[in-house]
């Protein structure tokens, strides 16, 4: 075992010096801007057998934000290390049992980001442990494909990104650039458009809308004038994106303005997927080839009448009838664990 | 003279105990998010004579940001006090010569903001000095109307706002809610749309555009991927808005994407003015009455081929042929000084 970066984090190993039944594990971690989840999965030694479905999860641990762009390098690192230790400790196992780790973290956009995380991860685990670092979108894809990197994933929560992979290892992304750079299909984008519509209705630039009453009530404000103060008091994207259900309710109730905002969001989300499919040729030469489209995130989940995810799929079908929409049954952290296992097996059989 | 809030700021008065020639002055201050300007203007005792044109300015002092939302109450206050002291000191005069002060500061949106600033301003000046606190848009209007509060002002710099006043004291505003709440016509809005267009061209969601080459060159970046890091490293609105000239150059050179962004900005800016004119009935009952439209800010200044300000006026003319566009010959701080004088005279002749 290597030197401890942080003695306290791994103290539990003193009471649990070896894995009780000698069983081995893989760790999968999904690190986002809102929260970080780590799961501990048994290591299946045979690569020629399909993994059990559902995938067994030995333990699950949760922590806060681990995006280094948001909280800084040191805090991100400590959060990641702690959540891995928690998952191992809960599973009754320790680092000597780990065969592979996949960290899928938001904010990993360049090989330099990967290298930086890999280098401190290397200090935590023994040299025989296989370590993989990916963008969190990759884990979301894997959560719908049992760890296979092929197809496209569309994530639409507070933010949005479309990420695609071909079987021969090419990849492409669209959107995921944050709200300043026009991720209008995201939860943040939908909510910001709704807030804008309220301001416009109030100052005479736009039509009246039921969003005014509904949003003011949701925020306990008495006038649209107060929205400026509310917005800039804490411009956290998640706080604003939390208004999406209000927009969907208004659209469900027939409000034209809310309806238009959701329709534009559908167009935006579909255009991200189409751009990725087009660039990677996921649909084959005739445009009719099939490919998995994994759909993840609160914005894409079914609502009462208005189902954003369903509308996005309808919009993509028109151009790519081979689209196979998948709503994952497991969370992205499990996708990361599946990736760790898949990567390990591929390396072992090179 | 009241107690000094900050001894050092007013130390110069010890060497200049009385106004040298007994002449009196008014102070006009324009406090924005980027900078703060204070001018010292002679006090003209007769209200029945028009003020000289050009208005004589005895001294001018400049400081940084004085928006309390940006820098906090204490720093804003010190900046405002210092810049007033500087202007007085430079004019060879002191507080005993001051008859009226108008502070026009961005971030003043509610009567409570006004009251807060008035209360500490009252500590600085003797009780006979008339004190007025306004939103900075009001000074911009006054800079084009020789201090009369009638008509509409459109400001489009980093941000944008339309503000209007009727002769009987009603007022209305549109936009000015910041970028999250959809001030798309602003310099920030134009630049953010241009950055978005570059990202979209890069990831396949949008058409190719000359903006890519021009913006990357302007920012010394080598790939659109680096825009994400550049943008979120320092999301200051002014830093992003500084890209407007690049967008205008591309539109001048015939780039369709840049052209469309500017056309949308024109529509947005015109719609703010129209909303204010409509709500206040500035155009009279038949819609053809004339009213001054004061136009202020870098976005509205003439460019080579593409003149955003001219296009905005053309767009407003279609609905309101009585629009009288004015490009002020003096800066907003002088507008604030003119306001101070006008308010003073109106109170004196009540």
UniProtKB/TrEMBL annotation, chains A, B:
The protein's Enzyme Commission number: 2.7.1.59
Coiled-coil regions, chain positions: none
SUPFAM superfamilies recorded: Actin-like ATPase domain
GO function terms (MF aspect): glucosamine kinase activity; N-acetylglucosamine kinase activity
Domain ATPase BadF/BadG/BcrA/BcrD type: 27-340
Pfam families: BcrAD_BadFG
CDD domains per the UniProt record, alphabetical: ASKHA_NBD_DdNAGK-like
UniProt-listed InterPro entries: ATPase_BadF, ATPase_NBD, Euk-type_GlcNAc_Kinase
Signal peptide: none
Enzyme class: transferase
Annotated family: Belongs to the eukaryotic-type N-acetylglucosamine kinase family.
Protein name, entry field: N-acetyl-D-glucosamine kinase
